[in-house]
Amino acid sequence: MNVVVDTSVILSAAILPGSLPARAVLFVLAHGTLLHSAATIAEADRILRKPRFNRYRTEKERLDFLTLLENRGREVDILTPVVACRDPNDDMFLEVAVNGAADYLVSGDADLLALHPFRGIPVVSPADFLAAVELSP
Predict the structure, then answer these.
(1) What pTM was estimated for this model as a whole?
(2) pLDDT tens digit string along 28-39?
(3) Considering only CA atoms, which of 3, 55, 58 is closest in space to residue 30?
(4) Given this structure, which CATH class describes domain 2-135?
(5) What residues in the chain have per-residue pLDDT under 50?
(6) Quick one: pLDDT at residue 136?
């Protein structure tokens, strides 16, 4: 199972262990492949470095989590650009999903969720992702 996870889910997973986003990311790491691109990793890195998240987890803990995702995941080369989202900044996740032949795009972003399904790829919240994969054989 190939899964793309957007930055909002990665952030929530990094700062709130045990949360639905964290459970979704850990499920992907245990049972599938987390797809990413240089652009999605760069955005996550930029967000996870923000000092306002220090009250939840240290910057080192947040960046160690991102390193784990990067090392355990698979980088997708973007050969086919995608321009489809109301928020052009979110197109990078659609690009990874399309170019990586994703089975799911997991997001907490309304602009991405509004596209469900995108080119046959389910775009779902962490809760809906867990409900779908935990019930499937």
Answers:
(1) 0.95
(2) 999 999 999 999
(3) 3
(4) alpha beta
(5) none
(6) 62
Domains of the chain, residue spans: 2-135
Smallest CA-to-CA distance from 56 within 19, 91, 25, 24 is with 19
Q: What torsion, rounded to 10 degrees, do the Cα atoms 5, 2, 135, 11 define?
A: -10
Amino acid identity, position 80: T
Q: What DSSP string runs through the chain?
A: -EEEE-HHHHHHHHHSTTSHHHHHHHHHHHHSEEEE-HHHHHHHHHHHT-GGGTTTS-HHHHHHHHHHHHHHSEE----S-----SSGGGHHHHHHHHHTT-SEEE---HHHHTT-SBTTB-EE-HHHHHHHHHH--
What is the residue whose two structure tokens read 């784990």? 68
Rounded Cα distance, 20 and 128, in Å: 10
Give the model's pLDDT for residue 116: 97
CA distance 37 to 91: 12
Measured at the alpha carbon of residue 128, what is the angle toward residues 77 and 41, in degrees to the nearest 5? 30
CA separation (Å) from 76 to 56, 70, 91, 100, 125? 30, 11, 14, 6, 22
